Amino acid sequence: MVEPQPPCDSIESAGRAKISRKPRAALDTEVHMSPTRLAFIGAAKDTSPWLFQAITRTARFEALCGNDADLDAARIHARWPFTDLTKMLDEAEPDGVIITGPVARRAALAKQCLSAGVGVLVVGYPGSSRDLTRIQTLAQLASRPALVASPSRYSPTVLLARRLIESGKLGRPISMQIASTWRRSSNDSALIHADQVFEAVDLVRLLLGPLARIHGVMHGDGVMLAVGVTSDHVPVSLAFHSGGPVESLGIDWEVRAADGTHLRVTRDCRLTCGNGSRTDAAHTPSLTASDPVIELGYDALLKSFIHYLTSDHCTGLIGTGDDTVLATEALLRPGKPRPLRRYLRTDPLMAPNRPSHSLS
Prior knowledge:
Elements: H1 8-21, H2 24-33, E1 37-41, H3 49-58, E2 60-65, H4 69-76, E3 80-82, H5 85-91, E4 96-99, H6 103-115, E5 119-123, H7 129-142, E6 145-149, H8 156-167, E7 173-181, H9 194-208, E8 211-219, E9 223-230, E10 235-241, E11 250-257, E12 262-265, E13 271-274, E14 279-283, H10 292-295, H11 298-310, E15 316-319, H12 322-332, E16 340-343
Parallel strand pairs: 1-2, 1-4, 2-3, 4-5, 5-6, 6-15, 7-10
Antiparallel strand pairs: 7-11, 8-9, 8-16, 9-10, 11-12, 12-13, 13-14
């Protein structure tokens, strides 16, 4: 359901006021002369250090906005620290803003940046489906890009797996299993982090298409099990853990095909594709020579965001679809002691006379 849109005049004028300060022609000229200026909003201690390395490699880390910005700026090599977002947007004038703050505030932060005419990258779950609709509306009105994605979808391993599936090398997929383990931060009250669920659901969508149905069971000890079916009738099982030893952190997944071929990816980004007697493809990063910034997808994610910022034709919502947000929202719905069951609107199995439980 699309929410009533805010008056266009106020948002468009806010976007034009910001954009007119730096016209597109001047921006394009500046891009070729100096790196793109990026800013970051969030808590640096709760963010992967590989993201900050990707920022400093691909752009100019212009500003950091957060409660501990003064302490974090020198450590992560940000140029200017801010504790007020309005002041940062006005004084630092970034070309784009990266948002990883608390999930409950991400949509509001993204809307404030877009209203100022600044493109945004939301790393992970953007909020509810209504929040995603509002972000899309503001991005279109401001003619700026709003990229919503997890870094894993830009990982070389995942991109290779997608090519193998699309080329038919794997065969017709008949099942997928995902096991994801994250460590919950000390100030995180959720049993399972929203970004953890979003990453797995987005991976399913990228490789096999959107989920049509999803059914999840939450355990009190920080474990959630879920099963789903894609729109192409491929069953998917997901297991989420919010704690464990260091060597267990990450995501393992496997796709099996009708001809007996399997595609396996381990948490250290190792890929094998074959049927036991043969190996059709393999990707084995070296622990000593491989770059985690590249292997985990942060490098390609930042380069894609910069490409969208400097292109005249990339505006509006980019990245994940609303079906991914709907499926994530279904599994994270609070206040349900019984198992969760939500039928998404992409479900091809729903009968016309069956009561609808669509999240939309």
